[in-house]
Amino acid sequence: KSTQFFSVVSVALLCLVFCSQPTSLDAAPLCTNAEAGCHVLSLANLFDRVIQHSARMHGISNDLHSEFELYFLPSKNQIGRVSRNCHTSNILTPNGKENAQRMAREELTEVILKLLVAWRDPLWHFHQSMTHFHDFIDFSSNKSLKMSDMVHELRKGVQKVVEKMQMLGILSNSVSSLMSPEAFLASGSAEWRLMKDYELLYCFRRDSNKVQNYLKILKCRIVPEDGC
Amino acid sequence: MVCARMVKHLRLPLLLLLLALAAECNSMSKPGKPDKLGCRSPDKETFFCWWTPGSGGGLPTVHRLYYKTEGRETVRQCPDYHTAHSCFFSKTYTSIWVEYTVIVEASNALGNTSSDPLTFDLMDIVKPYAPENVTLVVSIGDNPHLTIQWHTPSNIDTKSGWVTLKNQLRIKLEKSKIWKNYTSDTQTHFTIYNIELGVVYMVEVRCAIDNSAWSEWTNTTFVKVPNFPRTDNSFWILVFSLSLIPLLVAMIILILKRKTVKKYILPPVPGPKIRGVDVQLLKSGRSEDVINAMLLNQRFPVVMPWKDQNEDYLIVSDKETSYLPLEKNKIFILPVAITLDSEVQSKETSEVDRFLKDSESSSEESSEKTKSSQLLTKCPSTNVLNDEKANQLKGVTEKIIQPFGISGYVDIPRHEHTQEADYSRVNEVNSDNILITKKENVPHTLDTQGQEGGVLDDYSRVKEVNSDNTVFLEKHSDSVNASIRAKGYIDWVNQKAKSPHVTGHSEMGVCPQLVGCGYVDTFPPPAVI
Fold it and tell me: Which PROSITE patterns does this UniProt record tie to the protein (chain A) (predicted)?
């Protein structure tokens, strides 16, 4: 019996040692100058990762929106529908394939980053407000938290892609101004506080779709490999 | 003149009345409300809307579609009514992530009727067309499989990354009712293994853009999987049939030679059989036949006639006067036989049988006789004499049990005074096979004289035995004939001595060790083992 106990304890210890590695989406850090011990990823691979991430994010936002609609607004196509005044309306986004293709890479990248930056706070606030709705929590509280986390992670991922592109010389250095901490503070216009929850969800669903599509367009323009 | 003026005044109302009458007859009214307004984008770059017109109204009606986009307040009309009751929006008029509001208005002479407005975003109404050119290929071989290929709808641009297609196909057997679904992400081909042979499969494919709605299923494509025999089978069939031929040949040989085989495998066990006895005869059960079979046909071993033998066999158990230069413990048994008349001889067979049954028989004589007869044929391993008889004989001190090492007969000089006692004349043999001897003094001399004379004639006293195992006989001077006989005897002995095999040969019937000074039997030596 003692041998069994010791074996179990040893297995548990080994598991703790090896299983405690945190797994996250960007587990493999980008290495500048190909440092030793780093796992260097190709640009196409990075793009694929962020695109997948954005697809997942859009999926969650879509689910949340339809659940919300089902729960709080059963009747659709109302004439007196709430106006869509998303706080990101002032960001000029291309509204079609040709427009997106005609836009410069740097501009497109900026748009993506602006969108992602603009949604960090509202989503966090939304998650906080959702905790008061006990019914909604049963359904979707996980999703709202996950959504706000994903926005944060995706922004970091896109930043890494931009860095790589700038390193490779594909992108000029004009984009770096967006990623400074001052930009985050500047975007603190509180328009989003006026939005209602349903509008917020609707706006974010649209914007996450925009981000996904823009990333795809960007990828196929910069690294036109398979998948385009 | 007054009528003309009246008609003039009444013209307009009459017309109106007529019109009203006409209208009532045809039920003319405002146009019916257009219904079931729907819009769809097959490629995420353009879209079109359709509607069903309302019921009649009677008058020719015109349908117009008006739309409004989010952010712009201007209402615009459909840019292209390219088919009846539908409106097509080209790329220039299509914007994504922009909310459209579409309304259809039917108007005729009597009025307008509008449909319900439809509000949508382009990304909500994306639904591609079904895939095209579905081809099925059945591949034969070790692993029969079915390869399905198709093309994306021709209007979709997949190169720019704007559209990501995913595909789904379903397959079922023709006779089955259940479809089996498979998902293929962006590949436009799919392979299905583990297909059945000789059946017809039905395949349908559909696709979807991003997370939009699925397209319609393609038209069903049929494929027949041929029921081909596997090439391996023919090889194995050939091998199997070839291996069967030697088996068949072996079987045929076995059947033809079954008797020999049977003999080899199951050797015949000889049944019980008595020579000369017919089993069938015995089965018939007639006792006469049985007796005849059992007794007459039997050949019993030849028994030497007793009457010719006058020898007495003494039990040599005397330790003191031992003629045998042997170990003291070893004692030879020589059964004592009493010569009997021929009367007894008829009882020989029965007595032999009895002896065979018992080693110690109740009848002394019979036992001795049988024993001696046994001895004539061979040396028995054991001889047992009962104590009574042993004690009767003089010179006998013990009962002797000893296997014969050397067989033979030795004559031992009789004690003269016992001669009379040794012989008894058998008086009669009663029913119990007991010899009753008469106590009379047999004129031994008569009998014995003749015999003795014969004995004397036949026997010679051994003088000495030299180292060469040559027996030297003493000339008997008492008898007249003895000398002659003895001479003859000596000759015989000499002849015997000449033969090389005499020396040291036990076939003489004389055991060299035994002969010290005794009588040598003139008879041809019995068969000695």
Answer: SOMATOTROPIN_1 (PS00266), SOMATOTROPIN_2 (PS00338)
